[in-house]
Amino acid sequence: MAKRVPPLTAAAVAKIKPDPVRTLEFVDGDVPGLRLRVTPKGTRTWSLNIRASGVMRRFEVGTGLGLAEARVKAKAIRQRVADGADPTAEKRETRTRAVSAKLGLGTFGAAVDAYFAAGNGAGLKTKAEQLQRIRSVFKAHLDRPGMDVLSLELQRTVDAHPAKVAAARAVGYVTPMIKWAVKRGLMQGAFDIEKPLLDAPKQKVMDEVELAALWPTLTDAYGRCCRLLLLTGARRDEACNARWGQFDLEQGIWTIPAEVRKDTRAQG
User: Fold this and answer.
1) Neighbouring C-beta atoms of residue 46, cutoff 10 Å
2) Domain span at 162
């Protein structure tokens, strides 16, 4: 019967000194397969030795980790392998994407450019404005690998943007672009970015003092039209397009035709 390996302790791990000649290896009895390697230079690397598809493999857990963190990560790797994932291949792919990104290949910015150069955005009349807006709001992500950009990261960028109107427009522009990029393998995952809530536009209400100061200046044709607006509360187009036949001067009634009013009802 195989002898049970005792679990490592945080105190014992902290006391480990590197050997000046050879690499030391310590096995944790708490998480099967978890090992700590200490090089002569003192580098501490955790790994997990487990079977994957019937083959014994070593998966990197991390360097410079504490015992508790190493155990948590090792258990997560074990579960991912059991679910059919290959953490080593995923790390290799991530490194490859990072190298490509440094060369300007496979970046989020490249996907944006491709959408407006040869994708669905190529024929848009507003593509110049859309491209500029996306690049401005999402500037921090342009040089990142497109496959690594997450929806929550773009959402946080939108939420933190100081100009809400610009951010809202950027969301409207980038949403179809991302959908296009995901279908072509330039990005991955589900994206659901919300537009920021816009403040209600401020409205100015003039008081009697302000109206009294304004009234004497409204003397030309446009000014007299403004007086009519102030007195009646009518809309600009209703006043500018008014005809004498709409007014009953004896009764003091102005009847605006239904085809002129927005609510389509004839009113006096």
Assistant:
1) 25
2) 102-183
